Amino acid sequence: MIPAVVYAIPAFVLLVVVEALSYRFAPDDDEEGYELRDTATSMTMGAGSQVVGLPWKAVAVLGYAGLYTLAPVQLSPASVWTWVLLFFADDLAYYAFHRAHHRVRVLWAGHVVHHSSVRFNLSTALRQSWTPMTTLPFWLPLALLGIPPWMILLQQSISLVYQFFLHTERVGKLWKPVEWVFNTPSHHRVHHGSNHVYLDRNYGGILILWDRLCGTFQAEDEPVRYGLTKNIDTYNPFRVAFHEYAAAWRDVRSTRSWRHRAGYLFGPPGWTPKADAAVPARAEA
């Protein structure tokens, strides 16, 4: 099954070109804009993620289908309430997935790819992981709720399409009720910030309500510095894709303590044996 988001790729590329041209004809000194090598790396990461992701979707479908057959009740796609449940359940699953991938280093090692650019534009949305295998567990409960697998995949694609438009500096803050309920470019700029006050904030997908309820919300109050707190300074796609796995492996090999090894893998990014209290995510990359 080809994810619906694949069909949106030509539109994504066209909109990247349009936004890049907007910087050429209407530059803004307060915005980072585009840089050719950075954009090329983001595009390459996006293409690679699709190559890896397509066969992995087949595995995901099998997992969803297996649990769907075990669900006590199988919900009808003809019911509007099934779609309402799917919308909120998918968005909550995304919040859990996203938060976990910032707070567990072995998960962060894949997700760090998306935060590795020091620029923030529509091409940044395409800078995706080449190791999507860690996403599956967070959506399996939706199949157990009785939601058909094809609906889960469709809503995942809808969420990703929505989030593409969050990656821009060309849109300021929106109407206050919209900013209060939905994830917006302003909220997502915060999420991509390496400013200390912005670290590990605004994990939402379509809604920002989960962040407000769980205490991870932060408004955009100061200029955003994009990227990692320790940037990797490379445009090499393979290093972008795997540098944090290599760093974690070096840390694991540096100690003979199994407790410390577990901390390096399953503690938050920046965990060290000398401090149980974690350094915020993106501290080491």
Automatic annotation (TrEMBL):
InterPro entries: Fatty_acid_hydroxylase, Sterol_desaturase/TMEM195. GO terms for biological process: lipid biosynthetic process; membrane lipid metabolic process. The chain crosses the membrane at residues 80-97, 136-154. Its main location: membrane. One of its GO terms (cellular component) is endomembrane system. The keyword Transmembrane helix applies. It is a multi-pass membrane protein. It is found in: Endomembrane system. Coiled coil: none annotated. Pfam families: FA_hydroxylase (PF04116). Keywords: Lipid metabolism, Membrane, Oxidoreductase, Transmembrane, Transmembrane helix. GO terms for molecular function: glyceryl-ether monooxygenase activity; iron ion binding. Residues 83-216 form the Fatty acid hydroxylase domain. This is C-5 sterol desaturase. It comes from Streptomyces solincola.
